[in-house]
Amino acid sequence: MPHPAASSTPSAGPDPSATSSVAAAQHRLVDVPGGRIHLVEQGSGPLVLLVHGFPESWFSWRHQLPALAAAGFRAVAIDVRGYGRSAKPQAVEAYRMLAHVADNVGVVRVLGEETATIVGHDWGSPIAANSALLRPDVFTAVGLLSVPYSPRGGTRPTDAFAAIGGPDEFYISYFQQPGRAEAEIEPDVRGWLAGFYAGLSGDTVPSGDPTKLSLVPAGGKLSDHFVRHPLPAWLTEADLDFYAGEFERSGLTGGLNRYRNVDRDWDDLAAWDGAPVTQPALFIGGELDAPTLWMADAINNYPTTLPGLMSSHILEGCGHWMQQERPEEVNRLLLDWLKALPDAA
Question: Catalytic residue numbers?
Fold first, then answer.
């Protein structure tokens, strides 16, 4: 049943010339207990909730929405709180993991559903995993792209990140101070996004080292490691214009505040220390994606931490933006998994 307090209103979508592959999708603004969420919906059938990462938007799933819809699923991509047309609370703590999980539950309820499969990429992956961990009654299967599931551990995250990088500064540490990264990015949002996307793409990763962009030179900026390329093959000028327009309008603070809650999450999730996610699961990583390299131990631990894993794949030569870099391959893997789920239609 829909949440009794929920409502929805149509939302004018972005320029259709930039989103022709999802021309049939419906844009809506829906009320959930934590604020308003912008979502893009296509198709009918079992609900699949798609959760993006940083610095992205619902648009990151533009290739998956029509493919899932054509295969008989109700595909819904959200703008995570702080992004696009979704609510942007001012308080840093409003972006804790518990708030994102509550938003996802609220979206499922406002759509009139009891359960959903949840799929996340980048930060969307731990958001999806924790949604499944905390609300197994709602999220009956979980797909993780890029970032492997790793349960809460014994070390406070900011302490762990401070130990990475030697003389350089790990990017998550760099993102901790409000306003610091914003001052780097916001004077030239489009240029910064182009460099960041290229630096983590399989076809343009600098010197073949996908981890280089994770380190900030002492006294420098993250963009000091950008290598100016032509745009990656997966990213058109119109795509970049769309992303840049979203962030020029909304700013980057909402997305960056997710990083600023890692210690708060660690405190909030103490009761789930070491807890496995037991639902049927999918993992897709990229051979040239930094989290796949950093978190190889997490992938190796899946028999314990992700015991319901049905399908796991590392895409050769693929970088971080896998559902955009390799849309046909990712769509095939997603659909094969979705159709094999125990409760698949």
Answer: 122, 320
